[in-house]
Design a protein that fits this description.
Order of helices and strands: EHEEEE
Shape: elongated
Radius of gyration: 12 Å
Structural class: alpha+beta
Distance between the termini: 20 Å
Number of domains: 1
Number of helices: 1
Largest sheet: 3 strands, antiparallel
Strand order of the largest sheet: 1-4-3
Length: 54
């Protein structure tokens, strides 16, 4: 899941709700969720990655 916003309502709130409603998925925690803050080359991004449980 990714967005081009830093708004928690469109990022963490959405991904947390997804995980609550889809218990067969887990977040890959070693790098995600990850926020890439704005700089001269982009506006900033949010990335979260999930995998299905075995």
């Amino acid at each position: 899941y990714s967005t081009c916003t830093l708004n928690p309502e469109e990022n963490e709130n959405i991904t947390d709700a997804f995980l609550q409603n889809h218990t067969d998925f887990v977040r890959i925690r070693d790098i995600y969720p990850h926020t890439i803050f704005p700089d001269a080359s982009h506006d900033g991004f949010f990335i979260d990655v999930f995998t299905k449980r075995n």
